[in-house]
Amino acid sequence: MWRELLPVGRYDATGGYRRHAWNAADGECRAWFREQALKRGLTYEVDRNGNQWAWFGDPSAGDAIVTGSHLDSVPDGGAYDGPLGVVSAFAALDALRDRGTAGDRRRPLAIVNFGDEEGARFGVACVGSRLMAGVLEPGHARALRDQDGVLLGDAMERAGHDPAAIGRDDERLARIGAYVELHVEQGRNLGDAPIGVASAIWPHGRWRFDFHGEANHAGTTRLEDRRDPMLAYAATVLNAREQARLAGALATFGKISVEPNGTNAIASRVTVPFPYGCDLAGSWRCPNECLYVIALSSHLGHGHADEWSTCSLPQHLMFDEQRAHFRGRASGARS
Question: How far apart are the first and last CA of the chain?
């Protein structure tokens, strides 16, 4: 399976992957998932939100065990971020069949590929799963735009999916009894441990700053006469990093849009997305501190920001006691 999937969406200049929602590479990944399901004789479905499902057993039986992940990537993402969970799910089913125990399952098993999980193209993460759960408003999702101005709804339609159908899927949610996902560690917190069992999901929110100034000629406008929003942006980046360090959190500025975007022009507007995450006991003061720096920069004549918008709000999620039971079984399996 890896030999077939690894070349898809790989960007040779960096070695990373650019499998963004509803682009050509994402379409190839989705075709690969469908092929894997059908070659195993599984019941293949695409739900109203574009998530792909492969069922072993009766999908309508309920109390299903669901596993999988996603196949899209962050810009220049790694090969195993997401696909590991999908490939391992198919491999686990193959192993059950090889042992002759797959038919003993009293509950249906489903393998899922959640669509647009990373949010790399349209700026909102976990679109497919959040739409299914009813925590992302369909109209808001359809109106999301990528950097080329393409609407999410239009991108879905071009890929053959009806954007008018997206939204909370109670019938599908009722089928699910348990969900487990194998995911590659993307940091270095595990150290030498071969595996870890998650106890919670870090709250992670996304906001957007719009810094406004005054466009002017860079070669003739004196420094004291400038209203340069790039300075307010730079001050915010540094402050966000420091506040995140103090809070044990993560603050990132990885994308910037500048107008008029000229080499010899002072900017009139700077727009940046701002993802921020912290642990469950962490502080959410960082976005507020950034607002303070924006206001301070305005007073210093560096431009100002009159727009501060929320793209997605953080949610605190602790896993239940079943996690401890699973951890005990996993530890026993390794001994």
Answer: 29
